[in-house]
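ARCHIVE CARD
CATEGORY: sequence design from structure
SOURCE FIELD: tokenized fold
FIELD CONTENT:
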């Protein structure tokens, strides 16, 4: 766990992505929770060792499993965008089976424990912005969308720290399969305008606003190539020809390169559907 400002801590070692907390006068405000049960317990134990304070709230930056599964290990109200509440409320057997299957390739014990988890619904939701006042410092929640329709950022202005959720990722290829890429570009522009010395991305090391620029360039490149492809009358099934030009367009960790082409193809499919829908609205 790293202390990155007077009141703010982050942990960047967990399997599902980065998590953090703000230590207020009245207790902890936790930002996202780990994917694996053993890591969720480890994060909870770290906070208990840090200070004898209660966890006041758990904030989820979106509704994907790597952001929410660890909520089950924290006895505190969950705060999220209203679209996160809607999505979690609808999770059924198919969702849990998918999670168990994906965890089985990572951690067999975690997959076995999934059946016993009881995932709490968010108790506090918002649509555009929210400020949590629990002593000092205040914590601001901002809805951006982009990576998912529900993606939010968490801003601690007194410490100039911004938790971006998965709208910012480093050393890993961004996942666009639930994204609105036009909205994502707008979110990245807005993030660069926020007065923050440190960004805590959804994945990867701590950074500053300048680190968001390659991601904007990658999304613009993908949108431009798919738009040309669509305007030339080519189908979604013919998108594979674009994959090679995008393999080296965004820096990723060497361990990720094996699965790079499959993820790029999934991203291309999503952007194709976006471009097609935009062209239909213009017609």
């Amino acid at each position: 766990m790293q202390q990155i400002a007077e009141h703010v801590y982050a942990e960047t070692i967990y399997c599902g992505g980065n998590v953090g907390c703000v230590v207020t006068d009245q207790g902890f405000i936790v930002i996202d929770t780990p994917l694996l049960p053993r890591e969720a317990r480890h994060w909870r134990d770290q906070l208990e060792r840090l200070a004898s304070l209660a966890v006041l709230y758990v904030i989820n930056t979106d509704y994907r499993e790597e952001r929410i599964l660890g909520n089950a290990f924290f006895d505190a109200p969950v705060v999220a965008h209203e679209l996160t509440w809607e999505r979690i409320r609808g999770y059924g057997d198919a969702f849990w089976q998918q999670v168990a299957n994906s965890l089985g390739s990572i951690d067999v014990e975690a997959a076995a424990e999934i059946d016993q988890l009881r995932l709490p619904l968010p108790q506090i939701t918002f649509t555009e912005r929210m400020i949590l006042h629990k002593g000092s410092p205040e914590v601001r929640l901002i809805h951006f969308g982009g990576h998912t329709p529900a993606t939010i950022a968490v801003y601690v202005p007194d410490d100039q720290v911004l938790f971006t959720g998965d709208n910012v990722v480093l050393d890993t290829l961004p996942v666009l399969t639930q994204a609105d890429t036009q909205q994502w570009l707008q979110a990245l522009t807005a993030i660069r305008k926020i007065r923050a010395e440190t960004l805590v991305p959804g994945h990867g090391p701590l950074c500053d606003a300048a680190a968001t620029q390659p991601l904007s360039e990658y999304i613009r490149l993908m949108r431009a190539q798919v738009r040309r492809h669509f305007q030339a009358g080519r189908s979604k099934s013919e998108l594979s020809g674009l994959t090679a030009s995008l393999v080296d367009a965004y820096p990723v960790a060497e361990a990720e390169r094996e699965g790079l082409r499959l993820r790029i193809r999934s991203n291309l499919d999503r952007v194709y559907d976006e471009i097609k829908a935009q062209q239909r609205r213009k017609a």
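CARD ANNOTATION: Residues 260-282 form the longest helix (23 residues). The chain has a mean pLDDT of 93.
SHELF: design records, drawer C
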